[in-house]
Write a structure and sequence with these properties.
251 residues, mainly alpha, 9 helices
Amino acid sequence: MAAAGGESSTTNVSEELFQNFYTEVKQIEKRDSVLTNKQQIDRLLRPGSSYFNLNPFEVLQIDPEATDDELKKRFRALSILVHPDKNQDDPDRSQKAFEAVDKAYKLLLEPDQRKRALDVIHAGQEYVEHFVKEKKKQLKKDGKSLDLEEDNPEVFKQAVYKQTMKLFAELEIKRKEREAKDMHERKRAREEEIEAADKVKRDREWQKNFEETRDGRVDSWRTFQAKGKKSKEKKPRSFLKPPKVKMEQRE
């Protein structure tokens, strides 16, 4: 009974932390919604942004469970804020920030991509919840206090955030590896295709040259044979000459 009660308590704590996490997310959204255009550009281009911006919800600073209308409104507000036309004193950075916002929005407009992003976020949350649950289970087994730093909503939120970013980064690395592998295979196939085409071209040229020079080779052979026959006809007959007899000298 005690074990069952402990598991139920752990489940309730996880659910409470989960709700606190979304409450924190909404508070952050409200706070960041008043960021200036320069602050938003800095946020979108901060060090490590190539990985931070893999999470489209993080880019747009919007609740993963937001409706389509909320998504459109948020995109419009943020895109206007960082648009190069509104930041003519910093056109290059504002252009990059706008592209990040636009990319995240377009990705979330695609149902499959949006589901994939949500799956990653849910996986990150489930991982942290499972980690907390297993850690409390071990503490209980060891007879120790069940208090964890992850009981603090802020710590829990940061743990979920870090795990989610890690999952997005791992997926991106795998994607790049597949892309590099596919590119290498396409390059190799193209090289083989070019080599095969060159071989066919060389064979055709050889055959063409062979056909074009065949008559010349035949004529040369016939001329050679004719010269040989004529030379044989003009050659005089040779007779064996008897050896000279050396006369003996008498004294």
